[in-house]
Here is the input.
Amino acid sequence: MNSITQDLLSIVADFGGKFEGAYNIRQDCQSVARQSTDNVKIENKTDGKPGIDIKIAPNTKGENVYIPACITKSDVDDLVYNDFYVGENADVTIIAGCGVHTDDSEASRHSGVHRFFLSKGAKVLYIEKHVGTGIDDGNRVINPVTDAEIGEGAILEMDTSQLGGVSASSRKCTIKLDKEAKLIIRERLMTDFNQTASTDFVVEVNGEDASVNLVSRSVAKGNSYQEYRSKIIGNARCTGHSECDGILADNGKVNAEPALIANCKDAELIHEAAIGKIAGEQILKLRTLGLTEEEAEATIINGFLK
Amino acid sequence: MLEIKNLSWTAPDGRKIINDISLDIPNKKLIVITGPNGSGKTTLAKVIAGVETAESGSVLLDGEDISSLNITERAKKGIGFAFQQPVRFKGISVRDLLMLASGGTATDRQLEETLYKVGLQPEKYLHRDVDAHLSGGEIKRVEIATVLLRNSKFMLFDEPEAGIDIWSFNNLIDAFSSLKKNTDSSIIIISHQERILAIADEIVLLKNGRIKEHAAKDDIFPRLFCMNSENCGKKRCGCPKEVKA
Here is the structure.
């Protein structure tokens, strides 16, 4: 792998020279490093699509699986399909960030389609960081798609963040929950300049006593624009909570359209949303602690997106 | 020592909220400012801290005129201010906020001791966010802790008792009493609360934006509640029993 990939990996996957556990590193449309373990097998897809199948054995505990993708130059259009099959009662962490680097105005794009199949009792922490690096006005596009089927009693915890430098992104998540399954999504999003970002979460809660908690926090700075759409569909006795908070700075704009659909009288669904600029009182408080206005604003934003 | 000289502030609607106030607050003194609602107490505090800008007059800290300094500069000079209505921060923990207050220098032990002083158990609160999940009383105590940790030359607490339950209030009285004994700083507390007035060295009574009375606590304390009482129409009757009746 080249040095740009190493830099991007350090940002999106805390890469310190090597990964412990199973991994597949994708660079400019191809795999440049791969390792399977006894419990985690990574193989090329056999259906003709670009990408890999990741098969995690039942009862695998405490292993990390790294599936990062990096684009290190302009004029690259990467499309990859990664399928994760998580065996019963496995408990693993999957780190699947993406970094795109461009040094001129030519566009580069990464579209990653990830499908998750969590068997009964499985537990997955899925960490996905996105970042763009290179010239300020580079054209860097990241379009993640996440489809998941969460089996009985299984838990999927998604921690996603877009750290900046991405000129356009479109995130689409479609997730179905079985009985007693649990979904937690924490999204952190920062846009600046003329960047755009859209998020679509569609969650179908089909099993009794399943639960969903979606939390999205975003900051729109410069002339950037964000769209957030979430839909929780309660088809059974279940609980669902969706929270969307946005901070506006400069001329940033946010359009949030949360939706709750209860198709069962025992579905308990809640939504909270708040969009606005940083409260003046927050700035004042931090200034009374000795921070400048700029330091106060940065502290508030960093905390908000933590 | 903090010196306030001929300070005035007028609201945007033209009402004179602070009217030519002068006041000296010596080191190691605890002064409680009290008075009816709308008398200008909170505005005076905000003007001292630089949150509001005085239209005239000056504020001197240890002889240095800080009137032209902004909030940040005044904080760095040693003005600490606990707001009457603390703000909440999503994603900033109690620990984060206290560390900011200390300038990043506080030890874990100092953080824990400070939280104990304001009646919060560190193990329960240090890692919680300063957000809507804290009650009004809890967040108020965190606010007070931010000022205690700064160890400022001059500390200003705006109605610290508001929203605090009686058990925590006892802790708070202890904390202020201890602060008074152990600090070289000067302290102003804005309060209506009898037990806070009782630990003051001096009491300042504000009315209609002016200092109505400024005296040693023992001089003013017996008469004060009568003046504040809605039930007693008599001014300065000098008889606390009348107030209680």
Notes: Chain A touches chain B at residues 217, 245, 279, 281-282, 284-293, 299-300, 302-306 (CB under 8 Å).
